[in-house]
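ARCHIVE CARD
CATEGORY: sequence design from structure
SOURCE FIELD: tokenized fold
FIELD CONTENT:
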């Protein structure tokens, strides 16, 4: 009997890599979906390709979107990336690295591909604990999108399938995600989290994403294999 298909949003970071590993472990045939959306760098797309290959994705699709035309984020406009912020600063409000409606845009494309693939499952590697204040990483958001998905698709309206948004990391800390990924054989050396890669190829070590990643590996008692500036 054929394995059920799942679309997995894959950014190239440790969260999405772990989500892909979880989907594979749960018996899904995985279709990885990444976006070249005008982000500050394409380093994460290189990582997404390598992760998709290493974790045996059936297909890896990279869609091009120009979110720089909209801007409004330090990742898609000429706005400085915050550095060396404390945990309290990171948890106080929505940071400028939030890309307006990004997960809604990404999930909408994932939904379209899932319907074509006759897949009822989409995996998203968001987590609500160490999430840097992003509003589209909360369980309320993903639950609402799942309701929308079943109202907005032909398959859902005709009752042929009920689409589910899987968020297997939603209640995990970064340390727990690192441990889970390690258990599932994720090579974190292939992943990338830094918002602002350095000219020498290392992660900056000071942006919010680097700091959360460092915290996760430290609390998990493991060494991060990705080179980072001290």
């Amino acid at each position: 009997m054929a394995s059920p298909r799942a679309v997995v949003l894959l950014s190239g970071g440790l969260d999405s890599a772990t989500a892909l590993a979880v989907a594979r472990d749960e018996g899904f045939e995985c279709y990885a979906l990444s976006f070249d959306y005008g982000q500050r760098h394409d380093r994460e797309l290189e990582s997404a390709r390598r992760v998709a290959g290493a974790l045996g994705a059936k297909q890896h699709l990279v869609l091009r979107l120009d979110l720089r035309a909209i801007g409004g984020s330090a990742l898609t406009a000429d706005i400085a990336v915050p550095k060396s912020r404390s945990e309290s600063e990171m948890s106080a409000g929505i940071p400028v690295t939030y890309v307006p409606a990004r997960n809604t845009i990404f999930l909408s494309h994932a939904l379209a591909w899932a319907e074509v693939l006759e897949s009822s499952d989409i995996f998203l590697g968001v987590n609500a604990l160490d999430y840097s204040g992003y509003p589209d990483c909360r369980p309320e958001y993903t639950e609402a999108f799942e309701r929308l998905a079943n109202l907005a698709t032909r398959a859902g309206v005709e009752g042929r399938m009920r689409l589910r948004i899987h968020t297997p990391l939603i209640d995990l800390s970064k340390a727990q995600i690192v441990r889970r990924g390690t258990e599932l054989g994720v090579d974190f050396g292939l992943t990338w989290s830094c918002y602002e890669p350095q000219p020498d190829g290392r992660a900056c070590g000071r942006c919010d994403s680097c700091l959360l990643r460092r915290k996760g590996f430290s609390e998990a008692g493991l060494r991060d294999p990705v080179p980072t500036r001290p």
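CARD ANNOTATION: The first strand starts at residue 5 and ends at 9. The CA atoms of residues 69 and 76 lie 8 Å apart.
SHELF: design records, drawer C
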